[in-house]
Amino acid sequence: MSTRTAHQRKVAGGFAAAGAALTLLVSGCGSLTTSGEDAERETHSIEEGFHVGLLLPELQTARYEAFDKPFFEEALAELCPNCELSYANADQDVDEQQTQAQAMLTEGVDVLVLDAVDSAAAAGTVSEAQAQGVPVVAYDRLAQGGVDMYVSFDNHRVGQVQAEALIEALEERGTAGEGQIVMVNGSPTDPNAADFKAGAHEIFDGQVEIGQEFDTPDWSPDQANSQMEGAITALGVDEIVGVYSANDGMASGIIAALRSAGVDVDDLPPVTGQDAELAGIQRIIAGEQYMTVYKAIQPEAQIAAAMAVALATGTDPELGEYNLVDVEDANGETVPSVLLEPIAVTEENVGDTVVSDGIYSIEEICTDDYADTDFCQEAL
């Protein structure tokens, strides 16, 4: 297991209270029905340990290195102290992730936990793993190819939460029914982005006028910035009353485009986000970004570790308060899954969410640039 940084240890420790309520042990009896088996699988034991591969997709979003990886490491070490973990991050490169997966399979991993850069392209990796008798847990994104289990958030609900928050902001400002909104969706290769988009449209359609809409390759903030500049040119900056941004990174590019167009901070239209990145939280307390979606990553990583251990040992995972549900993959096959609930974060509940859960301290949020905000003045 790799050594965590002091910051990662602090972040993980901040979840201790929440983690105590989430018992993720592996039962000693029962069996798990899996799909897509091609080779006979070896059953491993927790006592002897086994080899787990963790593949994460990108570095543009801060969560993966700061939270997902250390939380998964910690959960796996608790469930299987003698297990070995191999880790790689593809930095949004499909070919690189395939190379990383191949290297892990050649190295002899016994179970893969895969957060795919491209869901469809990952089918080959999943199929190859199954052919070698290596089960696959889809993490955060549902890869194609016949994975065994899946853990994520209710991604359709994420889009609904974002859209509901934006409409609420328009109503608060008295701009509902006026002007147009711009939708800046996520990467077209990410199945989660399609779910976010569909959920948002379910709320928006018939309630707001969508003046411009984009899908954003690689979740790129730079691309989002260019798209927003195009929307401003096409619609006129004064006509834009709100912006749906699928995540915080793209929100940064969108807000930069609005500021470059001459919009003062106090006059910025409400902009949504996702992932509760530190920079996103700081923009929220500064009044630049209206909201983000907080997804409690520790339970997601814990569940993924419990699934990996269960698949490797041929047992059923005990998931505490969470239940398995059937989710249909792109081929119409059902995958045993856990879907977690997203939470909307605005300036009003920053303290009750990311601060109280130990994701960020007041000191981390309230740096010199943000010390004069109302939030920091009250918190410090």
Automatic annotation (TrEMBL):
Xref: InterPro entries: Bact_Solute-Bind_Prot2, Peripla_BP_I, SBP_2_dom
Periplasmic binding protein domain mapped to chain residues: 53-315
Tagged with keyword Magnesium: no
Principal location: other
Pfam hit, one: Peripla_BP_4
Signal peptide: none
Compartments reported by the entry: Cell envelope
Keywords: Signal
Top-level taxon in the UniProt lineage: Bacteria
Key word Signal present: yes
Designated name of the protein: Sugar ABC transporter substrate-binding protein
Natural source organism: Nocardiopsis changdeensis
